[in-house]
Design goal:
Layout (H helix, E strand, L loop, with lengths): L2 H21 L6 E6 L5 E6 L2 H23 L11 H25 L6 H17 L17
Antiparallel strand pairs: 1-2
Helix pairs in contact: 1-2, 1-3, 2-3, 3-4
């Protein structure tokens, strides 16, 4: 991963950690964690799980992004895709930051239409992921692999 992509991911993790730490005392004991297709809450979790959902998942995705080039077989090196790989590994971290922001907003009573926001967020993520796929060189992890 390019250092710029790693720094951007670390910045997002730090920002979401600061936001979570700031809002944590104001959060209720149980938070909405899952919504059904109609946009109604159908799953709750304890307040401490917000740390796993946000900074924890974002950190795990960053570690995965850093580890994949090291785990890649020699003939399928990810470094050939360069900046595109960094971009594609930064997107899931940003997506998890958005999800955490939605959960924090819902927990604090901000009126959000999750039934509309979540599908829109998924569509934007697919568009942002699909656009650079033409720049991806043959590798072991990303894109479509055909013989």
């Amino acid at each position: 991963m390019k250092p710029r992509a790693v720094l951007l991911c670390l910045l997002m993790i730090v920002v979401m950690s600061v936001v979570t730490a700031y809002l944590y005392p104001r959060l209720p004991a149980t938070l909405p964690m899952h919504w059904n297709a109609a946009g109604q809450v159908d799953g709750y979790g304890p307040r401490w799980q917000i740390w796993l959902l946000g900074p924890g998942a974002m950190g795990a995705l960053l570690l995965l992004g850093v580890a994949l080039p090291w785990l890649s077989p020699r003939q399928f090196e990810v470094q050939a895709s360069g900046a595109t790989y960094g971009y594609l590994m930064t997107l899931p971290v940003a997506l998890m930051a958005c999800v955490e922001a939605l959960v924090l907003g819902a927990a604090l009573g901000v009126p959000l239409e999750i039934g509309r926001i979540a599908p829109a967020l998924g569509c934007v993520a697919l568009i942002l992921t699909g656009n650079p796929m033409g720049k991806v060189r043959r590798n072991f992890y990303m894109g479509i692999r055909t013989p």
